[in-house]
Design brief:
By secondary structure, this protein is α+β, with helices and mostly antiparallel strands. It contains two helices and 13 strands; from the N terminus they run βββββββββββββαα. Strand 2 and strand 3 form a beta hairpin. InterPro entries: BAH_dom, BAH_sf.
Amino acid sequence: MPNELHHARSIPDDVPHLVKVAKPIGDVVKISTEGTHQKNHYNAFDFDGSTYELGDTVLLAPYSQGKMVKPYVAMIKDITDTDNKGIVLNTQWFYRPEDAAPRNGKNMEPIGARELFYSFHMDEVPAETIIHKCIVHFVSAQNHIPARKEYPGFIVRKVYDPHSKRLFKLTNNGFLHYMQQEIDLLVRKTMCSLGIIHDIESRDDAVDQEDQSSRNRNE
């Protein structure tokens, strides 16, 4: 992720356009402490007339000091307010191929402008850096990449590890258990939205029936 990413963690005092303030929606769902400070956790918040919830994917305005930088893309994982000082989001980052630095020093080759890499890199940003929601499709098979005209949005086929600077397919077997569960859920949600989950379940059922028939023949 570009170095400018880390400037997004706090709102500069000299940025006049950040005048709208995010407000929590609903009751506090959890209370935690950070030193002597109380942190309230919420399931949703309102900003500029739009409601945002846990799990939403959003575009974030980068603090680029005048440079032309594409918006960041992130998933909202936690919504907090510490000592009533404003909504802060704990977000999980997507990398654009040009921002992911591989070990050989060459930029990743994207399948197009839609491609992003998922990651398990987390960071905190003010809620007011949100531009708007966006759509991200998690696709584990090449033939499931949706047509842009019918299904607009970004495409994720791989996970990027910024520490090892390596890419992993969503179907990789080496993820930690909680990572694998999260990836499977995100892929399944995409398959449901594309209307092909029935095909997957039908194939699974067919395999189970073939296995059962084979066992019956061998008994």
